[in-house]
Write a structure and sequence with these properties.
Blueprint lengths: L3 E10 L2 E10 L2 E7 L2 E8 L4 H11 L9 E6 L5 E6 L3 H4 L7 E2 L13 H6 L8 E2 H10 L5 H6 L3 E8 L2 E7 L2 H14 L8 E4 L5 H9 L4 E4 L5 H9 L3 E7 L2 E6 L4 E2 L1
Parallel strand pairs: 3-6, 4-7, 8-15, 11-12, 12-13
Antiparallel strand pairs: 1-2, 3-4, 5-6, 9-10, 9-11, 13-14
Helix pairs in contact: 1-6, 6-7, 7-8
């Protein structure tokens, strides 16, 4: 399934009116099955579906580690992901099986923050990053995001691992981009404790919680954090950076990991 499709629209440009082809991003309902039973669904863009499921299930503490995944398969129609894994049954009971996690992040049910699980994963990494390297990677960010370039209609995330190794996630839902980027890194065997994560949108509580749950020490955005995002980052020792543009970065927590 292609993540885009073309449709004809009427375009007004100044005094001119014309019929033109326009590229739109595709939106699907992606079903997730765990050990043969339907868990729920994500409204998503049909790319990197296995990575999305992997990142999501680990960030929500349904799966403790990649080693607990026996297999993960995408259905032939690309509309469902089937996961066989050791599951946190207590956590699973907290989820309503029929709930759909929608793409409108403000009403999303994905913000299920588990303080006990997060406390166990409080960031301990002593890695440091030069501010110029973070800004360089942020400057290249959008040029590496193919769907954004084509449609302008997706959020993006970039997980910088080392050197020129990175993983990109693109989706209509902002939280899905993190799950995709991190899920791709996990499936590739990349180590997350020395990485930093860049996102295109706001640094809300659920975005910060996902970074903590994955043990990623630094989270960066071109825009601002919310107050709760900052509280969570400080509580769990995550380095949180906003307004990373040009030569500037605002560091809201964990400033010891950024040097110049």
């Amino acid at each position: 399934m292609q993540p885009i499709f073309t449709t004809q629209i009427i375009k007004f440009k100044g005094a001119q009116k014309s019929a033109v082809d326009d590229i739109l991003v595709r939106e699907i309902k992606l079903e997730i099955y765990i050990n043969g039973k339907r868990f729920g669904a994500l409204m998503a863009t049909p790319t990197d579906q296995e990575a999305l499921a992997t990142g999501y299930l680990i960030s929500e503490n349904l799966i403790a580690s990649p080693e607990d995944i026996e297999s993960i398969e995408l259905s032939g129609d690309a509309l469902s992901v089937w996961v066989k894994a050791k599951i946190n049954e207590k956590r699973l009971e907290q989820f309503d099986e029929e709930k759909v996690i929608i793409s409108g992040c403000g009403r999303s049910s994905t913000a299920n923050i588990d303080p006990e699980a997060m406390a166990a994963r409080s960031i301990k990494a002593d890695v440091k990053f030069h501010k110029d390297e973070i800004l360089r990677q942020m400057g290249q960010f959008y040029t590496q995001c193919e769907l954004y370039e084509m449609t302008g209609c997706v959020h993006t995330a970039k997980l910088f691992v080392s050197g020129e190794q990175f993983h990109i996630g693109e989706d209509i839902a902002q939280h899905n981009t993190i799950d995709k980027a991190v899920g791709k890194a996990i499936l590739a065997g990349s180590q997350l404790q020395n990485s930093f994560l860049m996102v295109s949108g706001r640094l809300s509580s659920e975005m910060v919680a996902k970074a903590v749950m994955h043990g990623i020490p630094v989270l960066v955005s071109r825009t601002a954090p919310t107050s709760l995002g900052v509280v969570i980052a400080r509580k769990f020792n995550l380095t949180l950076c906003g307004f990373a543009r040009g030569e500037n970065i605002n560091v809201y927590s964990g400033a010891e990991r950024i040097y110049e």
